[in-house]
Amino acid sequence: ILAGEQVDTEKAEIIFQKENDMDVVQKEVVEFLGDVMSGNISHEAVEESRRQVRMADEFESISDYITAILKLRMKVRDGQLHITLEGQQDILQLHDMTAKYLDLINKTSVVDNVQPEFYSEAKTKGTAVTIFMKDSRTRHLTRVVDGKASPLKSLIFTDMLTSYRRIKDHAFNIAEVLAGEK
Q: How far apart are CA 101 and CA 133, in angstroms?
């Protein structure tokens, strides 16, 4: 969906549907665990329920930002705007970095015992995503100043970059929960 001029409408519809599904899942998890927590349960069960609610919220927020990126991409298409080759390369690399980061978090979220090194790995890789995002933004703003990119595209492009960073932030919040850090 990010590369090239066309937006695959079939894939876009799947992404929008998955985001709606995540809204429903989050609502059901919160309602169910809210009922569980209001009952007579152990302190450990209450804490685990809180962790699960927080993770459901974070995963749903990630789905919101994924659809935000798609909508921005569609705005580029609908406005017949063109992102510079350098900008496309930065977005695609940031996309890949963020996808790998999410994969790390997702794989860890389904294991019974989180490895001790997981939290430091998540922190290091998350910082790398943030640094690359900031560097991409700086490169883009230089292109705007040099007249190689338009100010209108600048808003869309920086919103895309920020959305990837927010995805990373929400994924890191999940890492904190999994590692028992917060």
A: 14
